[in-house]
């Protein structure tokens, strides 16, 4: 069966660029609002469809679902995240070494094949902590 050839799409490129330009790990609605001024005919369904395709092709990654909304990251290299359980803020978390040692350790205790892992820390961000201290 012949592989489907993907045509260039200005809207898909704008969605990808908007995602790459932010560190906030946005959801589809945030990206829709960011790209809509460039493309008045853009629909939220188009944003969802393109995010799904980019995720399937490994161009972006899904970080988590918070508040019923899937959050995305343009950085596809293996890295960890921190999610604030109060406000939903997602930050990259670089304190953990991603040299493959954790995959090797897990593989030693697993009869299947480890391909990759994700590591997400949950807690309360500094902003939310300072609000509760007041």
Quick structural overview:
36% of the residues lie in helices and 18% in strands.
CATH architecture of the largest domain: Orthogonal Bundle
Supply the CATH class of the largest domain: Mainly Alpha
Strand content: 15-25%
Mean pLDDT level = 90
Number of helices: 5
Q: What's the number of structural domains?
A: 2
User: How would you write the strand order of the largest sheet?
Assistant: 4-3-5
The H-level CATH homologous superfamily of the largest domain, spelled out, is Winged helix-like DNA-binding domain superfamily/Winged helix DNA-binding domain
Shape: flat
Helix vs. strand class: alpha+beta
Q: What is the third-level CATH name, the topology of the largest domain?
A: Arc Repressor Mutant, subunit A
Distance between the termini: 63 Å
Listing every helix as H and every strand as E from the N terminus to the C terminus, the arrangement reads HHHEEEEHEH
**Could you tell me the number of beta strands?**
5
Low-confidence stretches: none
Rounded to the nearest angstrom, the radius of gyration is 18 Å
Largest sheet: 3 strands, mixed
| Share of residues in helices | 25-40%
């Amino acid at each position: 069966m012949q592989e489907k050839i993907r045509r260039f799409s200005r809207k898909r490129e704008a969605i990808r660029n908007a995602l790459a330009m932010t560190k906030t790990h946005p959801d589809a609605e945030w990206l829709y609002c960011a790209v809509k001024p460039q493309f008045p005919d853009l629909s939220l369904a188009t944003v969802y469809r393109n995010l799904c395709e980019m995720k399937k092709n490994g161009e972006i990654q899904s970080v988590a679902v918070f508040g019923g909304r899937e959050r995305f990251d343009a950085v596809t290299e293996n890295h960890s995240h921190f999610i604030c359980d109060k406000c939903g803020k997602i930050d990259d978390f670089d304190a953990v070494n991603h040299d493959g040692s954790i995959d090797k350790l897990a593989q030693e205790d697993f009869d299947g094949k480890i391909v990759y892992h994700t590591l997400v820390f949950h807690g309360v961000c500094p902003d939310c902590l300072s609000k509760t201290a007041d």
